[in-house]
Amino acid sequence: MAATPRLEIRNLTRRFDGRAVVDDVSLQVMPGQVTCLLGPSGCGKSTTLRMIAGVEMQDSGSIWVDGELICDTHFRIPPERRRIGLMFQDFALFPHLSVAENVAFGLTGSAGEKRARVETMLDRVNLRRFIDAWPHELSGGEQQRVALARALAPDPRIMLMDEPFSGLDNRLRDEIRDTTLSVLKDADAAVLLVTHEPDEAMRMADDIALMRHGKIVQQGAPYNIYNAPKDKEAVAFFSDINVIRGTVRGALTETPFGQFLAPGVPEGQEVEIVIRPQHLKIDFDRNGSGPLSTAQDGTPARGVVVRARFMGNESLVEFRMDHDGSIIKATVPNVFLPRPGKPLWLTIRRDRCFVFPAS
Ligand SMILES: Nc1ncnc2c1ncn2[C@@H]1O[C@H](COP(=O)(O)OP(=O)(O)OP(=O)(O)O)[C@@H](O)[C@H]1O
Ligand SMILES: [Mg+2]
């Protein structure tokens, strides 16, 4: 028997002014699992979360927790009885309450029980020493950790987090993400985290649901989404891309970089070969002869360096290609800064490119 999801949404749709901003979205999250809703601004992430929280009503579809219906278009358990924890970017601490009072806010029970729970939660986020402090006495990151303790104190079955780290600076954000993740895993809640940052999704998620125009276009483990993206946009969401166009002739596409397989694509159809900058190989000119073709890397094509920049972990080199004047970007680990105007050769790693019918 398959395990029951902690959270399941089925065919959730929400329309504003006749436009479906959440369009037939279905999703499952298991206990102890972090699923990221990842997508560009306006794609319907927050609206989805608000329906699950119960502060927004769907036009159709249903929401289930541990196999029990909590909301459809006829039946609705009110938000405060759903045992769902919330952490939003603008979900500030109450400034007039102490840290302890903030964490105790959603708790029931005797004063002693509440105090014990507050101490446990503050221990988990390593802030016990601030128990009697005021929110304004804490740094942004510390406030965020108190907010996490407060959200988890009532032992929610589900945590909904909407861009909870976006107010923090980079270094602090990584640290808080890691703390948050370990506290959430301990709590065994099902977590649905909304973000528009692919790095955050890769770092936090067991499962990523890629959302676009109100729909989930692809869902899977970060590794699978990154390495088996469904379309060009899915590749582009995670990194810079290069696109090389060609036309299918007998299941193959002929390009300046050699032939590429285009399985299942009809004869005569235009295709786009999509390749990330780190998967191009740069080679020397050798007085115009370039490197030899190989089975794995295909045919080299020549370009001249437009510019090269050092980015810290890698160097980014932009080329103008001889064959059509298009710009191609390639990254190289460490320092590689050829002068503008220098001719070099590029090959495309066939095992790392994606071939899609042209959109
Ligand atoms: N109450 C509302 N009335 C009308 N339109 C709304 C309402 N709430 C949201 N929308 C629209 O629905 C779409 C999705 O909004 P939503 O807040 O879910 O996006 P999002 O994916 O969270 O974006 P962001 O990353 O910018 O937060 C947007 O176009 C927004 O303008
Ligand atoms: Mg939003």
UniProtKB/TrEMBL annotation:
GO molecular function annotations of the record: ABC-type ferric iron transporter activity; ATP binding; ATP hydrolysis activity
Keyword line: ATP-binding, Cell membrane, Ion transport, Iron, Iron transport, Membrane, Nucleotide-binding, Transport
UniProt keyword annotation of GTP-binding present: no
Superkingdom to which the source organism belongs: Bacteria
Residue spans crossing the bilayer: none
SMART domains: AAA
GO cellular component: ATP-binding cassette (ABC) transporter complex
Residues annotated as domain ABC transporter: 7-238
Annotated GO biological process: quaternary ammonium group transport
Pfam family, one: TOBE_2
Coiled-coil spans in chain: none
Transmembrane found in the keyword field: no
Protein name in the entry: ABC transporter ATPase
Biological source species: Pseudooceanicola atlanticus
